[in-house]
Amino acid sequence: SSRARGDKPDALAALQAANEELRAKLTDIQIELQQEKSKVSKLEREKNQEVKQIKEHEQHKSTVVVTELKVKLHEDKMKELQAVRETLLRQHEAELLRVIKIKDNEIQRLQTLLNAVRDGAPDKVKTVLLSEAKEEAKRGFEVEKIKMQQEISELKGAKKQVEEALTMVIQADKIKAAEIRSVYHLHQEEITRIKRECEREIRRL
């Protein structure tokens, strides 16, 4: 009986010691768990910051791409305008040459009449004037006819150039808009992928 009473305090002491050891381990586990939670929170903050930086970087890249596309579109339009300007300049030069040729012919005609007057031949002057008048009328008609034909042809050509330029600009706008949409979707997919990887990493931790 005394031995049984002696064993009971020893068992109680052993139980208390085991209980204290378990409490100490539980405290250590709680501390470790809290540390792991802090690490996970820190990683979450870091990942969120990283995702934010990546998103800002991708938005910046998108802005740069859009700006570059706008600049290229502007350059293409300026090139088209320069081509139209050069075409109009060539047409103007051709018109000047035509006017100069007409004036030269007029000077030559007047010189011929002046020579006839100096020679003192009225009949000859009359014949020359009549011939010149007929020739002038015919030439004037032909010039006006050619001029109208040229103007019609130039108007058709200018209309065709404008239509082609407009078609090219519209096509370029469509292509650039498609490129911008494609770049934007790629960026969104990349951001989504990075976000999923971060979430998987956070869950793993």
Automatic annotation (TrEMBL):
Lineage, top ranks: Eukaryota, Metazoa, Chordata, Craniata, Vertebrata
Keywords: Coiled coil
GO MF entries: kinase binding; microtubule binding
Record protein name field: JKIP3 protein
Gene that encodes it: Jakmip3_1
Annotated organism of origin: Sinosuthora webbiana
Coiled coil region boundaries: 12-91
